Amino acid sequence: MCFSKEIIPKELWDNTMKATYKREWTHQAIKKIDADFNRSSDTHLIKLDLPSCHGIDLYFKDETTHPTGSLKHRLARSLFLYGLCNGWISQDTTIIESSSGSTAISEAYFARLLGLKFIAVVPRTTAREKLAQIEFYGGECHLVDPKDIYDESERLAAELNGHYMDQFTFAERATDWRGNNNIAQSIFDQMALEPHPDPEWVVASAGTGGTSATIGRFIRYEKSCCSDTKLCIVDPENSVFYDYYNTGDKQITSSIGSRIEGIGRPRVEPSFIPSVVDRMIQIPDAASIAAVHLLEELLGRKCGASTGTNLCGAFHLMSEMKGRGEKGSIVTLICDSGERYLDTYYNDNWLKEKGLNTAPHLAKLRQFLVSGTFDI
Ligand SMILES: Cc1ncc(COP(=O)(O)O)c(C=O)c1O
Fold it and tell me: How many structural domains comprise the chain?
């Protein structure tokens, strides 16, 4: 279409120019995100040898190597692209997000890439290191009671005429679950040359439920691999996902927040899709923390406690497979690094203060390394 300033009214001309400018800005923003992706490399798949489970191979998808250090880098990229292509984000939009920290770090990174103001609405209990990283990327932290993160984000977005990203609603639909280098496709591509390329189980945990939805849909959709793979979601104490999965009651809430940062929610989040989950296991918080302490000995590095939740689930399923005399593989995730949690999960005083006794769990986990038998 060709417009000429002389023959159309000024207001229509101005609106047309604004829309053209907005579209051009959106294209440039998407180009910047694509270029950032092009500069980044895929995350590694690490194999851990456990002699007590000979013939059952355990792999970790190491999501800590994303530029912002967690699996939330993938989600933040998808949410920005979704918001841009829906016309919700333009050159002067303030971005607001409710988060337990990891998503906010990654979104602050992308907001800075696009030159946008970013405000994270986070629980007061969020690890200090995470708050520092949000601020490092130019974001602002707005600390509230854990139960208030949703309402406060909506309120701020209305007050500032900004855009509330709302990861808890949009995570499951912003990611292309059919492929496009999502986490599931990347895992199965990297498994291709392994002795058991189609894992028996993928074990993950849920914050938004987005990772779970992506993997669960992919293993149903993709016929060339993983058609027999099942998805196990592990859930911490004080989270409602496990009870929701078993009862179907969407109204369940918990008044106590999860102590495993990043996973476990006090309400059923819209992005958690139970129909793509083949099994759920509930993991005591002290066991998750004991598991990352053990993992440090096995991998030589610290991981966040949600990785420990995943590890407990993986050991449980390996033990069951061993009991049935089965061979095969299991894949789980390293979600973020333990360096973010030196004040908490790696601090004996904090553990004592919270009444978390890791010793009996550590003993059981160590026993698994010898016997291959483990019951959570
Ligand atoms: C450290 C960590 N682990 C796991 C998850 C779970 O990911 P998802 O939101 O895709 O369910 C999150 C989510 O915030 C997280 O921060």
Answer: 2
Q: What is the dihedral of CA 212, 214, 215, 216, to 10 degrees?
A: 70
Which of 171, 202, 221 is at the close of a domain?
A: 171
Per-residue pLDDT reduced to its tens digit, 318-359? 999 999 999 999 999 999 999 999 999 999 999 999 999 999
Asked if 331 and 217 sit in the same domain, the reply is: yes
Residue 209 Cβ < 6 Å to ligand 1: yes
57 and 77 housed in the same domain: no
Single-letter amino acid, residue 194: E
3-state secondary structure of 143: strand
Contacts of 282 (CB under 8 A, 6+ apart): 234, 235, 236, 237, 242
Q: How many Å lie between the centroid of ligand 1 and the Cα of residue 121?
A: 16
How far, in Å, CA of 110 to CA of 73, rounded?
9
Q: For a pocket test of ligand 1, which of 211, 292, 310 has the largest count of ligand atoms closer than 8 A to its C-beta?
A: 211
pTM (2 d.p.) = 0.94
Among residues 130, 154, 171, which one ends one of the domains?
171
Residue 93: which of 139, 162, 166 has the closest Cα?
Answer: 162
- CATH classification of the domain holding 122: 3.40.50.1100
